[in-house]
Amino acid sequence: MSTVAVHPRSQPSGIWWLFLLQGIAAILMGGMLLAAPGQTLLALVTFLGFYWLITGVLELVRVFVDRSVPWIWSLLTGLIGLTAGLLVLKHPLLAAVTVPTVLVILLGVQGLVMGIIQIIAAFKGGGIGSFLLGAINLALGLLLLSSPLAASFAVPFVFGVLLLIQGAALTIWAFRVRA
Predict the structure, then answer these.
(1) Confidence band of 144 (pLDDT split at 50, 70, 90)
(2) In the predicted model, is pLDDT for residue 12 greater than 90?
């Protein structure tokens, strides 16, 4: 397998503004998450509720019009989407706490599983790096699972910082591609 280095000048300069718009959007969203995490999270969860509701309805329609997929799967995903969307829209404050908490629990479980796999790999010849990465993943997984509700309050701040970094990187990239 070979790798190819991508230089900004090898990208089409005509689309630089797309990167710039993405960067600005990420910076705005990151700033909103940091400035007003509760309100922003509530707005995002509300949009998620509408998304789940709409996709649930569309999956239920798909049961009757699309024979390329077994109807039972469309029915099941449609009912789940419809139910989740209605619950989120009916109880947005509860959803604003529950959705990040579930995300933290999933990340905690993933950290435990990946940590154990990496530690086992270290003893099977993966080396000290695999062991250290596994130990870090295991520790982070345990930390997240020890208090998922408390950890979920950090989610808007973490995503806010990540969006600011991504926005800055995309903005810089846009001007490098344009040059």
Answers:
(1) very high
(2) no
